[in-house]
Task: inverse folding
């Protein structure tokens, strides 16, 4: 049959956008969806119909993502909206997050699974408080790639100097926060400059368009630097005539890679054995890596159950009952010192108590407020937690999956707080020259 | 002008990147295993439609060589395509599964539910579904809903808490961070779980092709006697047939979705193979709901309203 490029398997990029309607975020998202032909005729018709009902002459592309009645009525985005689009090169999952200050929790949620964040700036206003907040969220959540989209270039005469000044100021700020990579792109979402097609109005810019960058940014890492981690989700024991003694430890590899023959240790018990086989959803393999879902077969029959963490014996994290972390409080009720909670880390949920809240952080200017007593919704702060059982935690800087946790209210199950173990921000990377790069990487 | 602090690792060459289908498959398997580890009585909503067939396939892979630790639940509108019911029963027998049926017809016969003037039974499924969940004490209910289907679904969580009336409150959803799903619920409450949240219609079809998954034949082009109502090609059956002025004709069609026969439309198609179906979808200018579901055309918030009341 006649194969089109759309039918082949591609890679997947999860990314987030942050910014407010005023920055043109909806226009940017609408254009990415529209120009990649991901908005289908009936959806566009529905948006046009709804826009007309509201007395608007042009279709309001924000209505594509504002899916809830309350959002449409109030003209605001309340919640993270997930959008899906594809080009022949890549599949995209976009977490479209509202940028208002009271919705920090949504930005944190969107950034938690993102490999890239697009931060929007209005070229006329430059770096503002909200921009600093968005950069801080990307830095806290250790999003590997940040794109600074300097929008509305058409309204500043497409001047290189305006773009360069904003890009330089932002990059300096983000670098200080430890953001490893910033790619600045001058765009006009409304006119379409440098979103999908290169701009005819900015000859001085030689870098990629937003879409080109999204299509080519690396989505995997050099795994040799990663600590291999497998949280055990489930023990598979068929106990059938065909498989009387099969015991497989099922889970999704959270970081790094495992290979057959490797010496592993099970935490928190500390027992060790070797990997006898790896079953990759029906296919035996010699090596498996993040984020594959696998079943490990081990040489010795040792006691392993859901909640345990399998790690290479030569690279085991320490276990601890005292955790220091940066958290974002996501619930309406406050988090207080002395709060008894459940802590979910990997596949293990344990009782815990909030021992101390040493400080609260203001994201706009990174000022610290010592001993706030409590954290309310959308607050970022430092906490000290004591757990009822020892946990094998990594620092979030080393492993986003095994360095993160959530706190849960034991009485009603509410998700209270998102936590990242260790220091809030990475130390700035030394400036290095990358001559291969032809983009405007600052 | 290129001052840089970037630490670009390997350029665009990504040796350890998973293909998009592998990434989506791994994520769905992870979700199935989390539910198996944290819940007492999970059940998979199984209609015999392609999304529920893909869910079952993923569940089988997640626990092999052991059996799937869940049963199946079919909410039967009574307006079924015979080919789909046949498929359902074959799948249940082949994998040694237990099938629960919640029957809309029973509720109508008992006078609990009344037939709607338009004859559509999709909105009537909510009560039998909710009562079956309560009487069987199911605590996790897998649905095949995808966020790309509809804009109210775009804000749905993977783990979605429902109260004892199965109601969904979009403003009280738990934020979902990393892949740390929170399945805590009180007695009487349950969690709807959507392992295909991040899949698109095209992903589902590509996966069906890659995994060589068998589907009911009505998903492929075939000659069928149909009549036009509200811009859709419907098939006559026990549920009813053409009214005055609606004429039956023979057309080459296929179904993009499978549901209540009275409001699920066929589309003109000559796609007789999986490859042809995928090419057709890749080129399509309509969403599958827009093309085939009369009930979603009712209002801007039709899906949100039904979801709030406990619909899938």
Result:
């Amino acid at each position: 049959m006649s194969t089109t490029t759309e039918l082949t398997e591609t890679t997947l990029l999860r990314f987030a956008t942050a910014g407010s309607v005023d920055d043109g975020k909806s226009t940017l998202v609408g254009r990415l969806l529209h120009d990649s032909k991901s908005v289908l005729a009936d959806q566009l018709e529905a948006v046009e119909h709804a826009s007309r009902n509201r007395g608007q002459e042009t279709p309001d592309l924000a209505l594509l993502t504002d899916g809830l009645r309350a959002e449409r009525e109030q003209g605001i985005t309340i919640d993270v909206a997930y959008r899906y689009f594809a080009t022949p090169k890549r599949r995209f999952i976009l977490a479209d997050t509202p940028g208002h200050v009271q919705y920090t929790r949504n930005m944190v949620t969107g950034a938690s699974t993102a490999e890239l964040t697009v931060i929007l700036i209005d070229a006329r206003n430059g770096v503002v408080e909200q921009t600093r907040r968005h950069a801080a969220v990307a830095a806290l959540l250790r999003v590997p790639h940040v794109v600074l989209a300097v929008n509305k270039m058409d309204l500043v005469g497409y001047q290189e100097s305006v773009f360069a000044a904003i890009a330089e100021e932002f990059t300096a700020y983000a670098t200080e926060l430890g953001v490893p990579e910033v790619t600045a792109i001058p765009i006009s979402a409304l006119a379409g400059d440098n979103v999908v097609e290169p701009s005819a109005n900015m000859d001085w810019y030689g870098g990629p368009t937003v879409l080109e960058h999204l299509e080519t940014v690396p989505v995997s890492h050099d795994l040799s630097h990663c600590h291999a981690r497998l949280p055990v989700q489930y023990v598979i024991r068929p106990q059938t005539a065909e498989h009387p003694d099969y015991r497989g430890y099922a889970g999704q590899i959270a970081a790094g890679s495992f290979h057959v023959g490797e010496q592993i240790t099970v935490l928190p018990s500390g027992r060790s054995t070797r990997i006898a086989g790896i079953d990759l959803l029906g296919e035996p393999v010699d090596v498996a890596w993040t984020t594959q879902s696998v079943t490990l077969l081990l040489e010795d029959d040792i006691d392993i159950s859901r909640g345990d963490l399998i790690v290479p014996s030569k690279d085991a994290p320490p276990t601890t009952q005292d955790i220091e972390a940066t958290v974002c409080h996501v619930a309406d009720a406050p988090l207080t010192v002395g709060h008894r909670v459940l802590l979910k880390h990997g596949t293990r949920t344990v009782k815990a108590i909030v021992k101390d809240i040493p400080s609260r952080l203001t994201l706009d200017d990174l000022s610290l407020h010592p001993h706030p007593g409590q954290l309310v919704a959308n607050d970022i702060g430092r906490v000290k937690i004591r757990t009822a059982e020892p946990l094998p935690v990594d620092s979030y800087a080393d492993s986003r999956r095994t360095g993160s946790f959530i706190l849960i209210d034991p009485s009603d199950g509410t998700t209270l707080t998102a936590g990242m173990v260790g220091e809030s921000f990475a130390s700035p990377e030394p400036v290095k020259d990358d001559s291969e790069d032809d983009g405007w990487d600052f | 002008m290129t001052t840089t602090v970037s630490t670009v690792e390997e350029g665009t060459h990504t040796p350890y990147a998973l293909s998009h289908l592998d990434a989506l498959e791994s994520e769905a398997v992870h979700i199935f295993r989390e539910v198996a580890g944290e819940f007492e009585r999970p059940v998979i909503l199984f209609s015999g439609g392609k999304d529920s067939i893909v869910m079952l396939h993923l569940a089988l892979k997640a626990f092999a060589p052991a059996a799937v630790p869940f049963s199946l639940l079919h909410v039967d509108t009574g307006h079924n395509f015979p080919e789909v019911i046949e498929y359902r029963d074959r799948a249940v027998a082949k994998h040694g599964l237990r099938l629960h049926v919640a029957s809309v017809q029973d509720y109508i016969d008992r006078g609990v539910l009344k037939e709607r003037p338009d004859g559509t039974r999709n909105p009537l499924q909510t009560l039998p579904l909710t009562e079956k969940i309560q009487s069987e004490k199911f605590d996790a209910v897998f649905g095949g809903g995808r966020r790309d289907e509809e804009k109210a679904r775009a804000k749905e969580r993977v783990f979605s808490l429902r109260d004892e009336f199965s109601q969904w409150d979009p403003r009280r959803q738990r934020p979902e961070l990393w892949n740390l799903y929170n399945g805590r619920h009180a007695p009487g409450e349950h969690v709807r779980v959507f392992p295909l949240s991040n899949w698109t219609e095209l992903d589902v079809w590509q996966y069906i092709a890659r995994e060589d998954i068998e589907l009911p034949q009505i998903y492929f082009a075939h000659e069928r006697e149909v009549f036009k109502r509200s811009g859709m090609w419907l098939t006559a059956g026990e549920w009813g047939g053409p009214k005055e002025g609606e004429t039956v004709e023979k057309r080459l069609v296929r179904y993009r979705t499978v549901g209540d026969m009275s409001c699920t439309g066929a589309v003109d198609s000559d796609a007789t193979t999986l490859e042809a179906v995928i090419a057709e979808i890749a080129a399509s200018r309509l969403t599958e709901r827009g093309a085939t579901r009369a009930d979603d055309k009712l209002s801007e918030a039709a899906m949100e309203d039904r979801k709030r009341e406990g619909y899938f």
Observations:
- Residues 20-202+303-308 of chain B form a domain with the Rossmann fold fold (CATH 3.40.50.620).
- Residues 234 and 265 of chain B are 5 Å apart (CA to CA).
- Strands of chain B lie at 42-45, 71-76, 99-103, 140-142, 159-162, 190-193, 222-229, 232-234, 248-255, 266-268.
